[in-house]
Amino acid sequence: MSRILICLFLITFISCKENTDRPTAAEPTVAEVKEDIAPTPVATQPDLQSLPDTSFVRLADYSRDFVYDMKYATTDNFLEKQVYECDECYTRVNTAKALIAVNKAFMEKGYRIKFYDCYRPHSVQKKMWEIYPNPIYVADPAKGSIHNKGGAVDITLVDMEDNELNMGTPFDFFGKKAHHAFGDLPEDVLNNRKVLKETMEAYGFNAITSEWWHYNYGPTLNYEVADFVWHCE
Ligand SMILES: C[C@@H](N)C(=O)N[C@H](C)C(=O)O
Ligand SMILES: [Zn+2]
């Protein structure tokens, strides 16, 4: 009996020792797994939930899941001028929350939002109006654009490799082909615009008839026009 007990003790001891000596590369420890999947905080900013809906926030401080191509921070835009010193995307807090939520829905379908423009200072709206005073494509600064209120975004969709989906025209194509009612387009283009519009609408954003890329967040329509300019490093 005592021999059997000694054998059992030795077998248990050896097998435990083997477990602790085994390389862990193939099977990460619980701590390693947790570290791998834990979301990395984007920055030390106040929690979005703690801020008033009307505050302005820099979207990149609250999500890493968006793609940016801020056209007015380049000369590749209808003004042919760089009107932003640097490429930042600011919105009101409620708009930022809705954008993060709708982007999650897009990601479940294999897409992400790519921004062309977000909050736009009122002084920039005036410059746009001087060059293109057509209220179908540029909001009259006398009334103010929802961009000036921090509630509008100009966007498209990219796939998970960051390739833009075909929307039929480039951004800021000021013509009938960019209108939602223009139906003479390939099936994939119509479908891409439909996915964009239906998903945005489900999260409180409204399209305008003349621009497939422009969306207004409903609760911001009556907000004040703003003219602050963000800080650039
Ligand atoms: C200029 C264009 N990107 C745009 O945003 N147009 C709308 C109508 C606006 O100015 O609010
Ligand atoms: Zn717009």
UniProtKB/TrEMBL annotation:
GO terms for biological process: cell wall organization; proteolysis. Its cofactor is Zn(2+). One of its GO terms (molecular function) is D-Ala-D-Ala dipeptidase activity. Zn(2+) binds at residues 147, 154, 214. It is an enzyme of class 3 (hydrolase). Gene3D superfamilies: 3.30.1380.10. Keywords: Cell wall biogenesis/degradation, Dipeptidase, Hydrolase, Metal-binding, Metalloprotease, Protease, Zinc. It catalyses: D-alanyl-D-alanine + H2O = 2 D-alanine. The record marks 120 as: Transition state stabilizer. Its EC number is 3.4.13.22. Binds 1 zinc ion per subunit. The active site is at residue 211. Catalyzes hydrolysis of the D-alanyl-D-alanine dipeptide. HAMAP family: A_A_dipeptidase (MF_01924). Belongs to the peptidase M15D family. This is D-alanyl-D-alanine dipeptidase. It comes from Robertkochia marina.
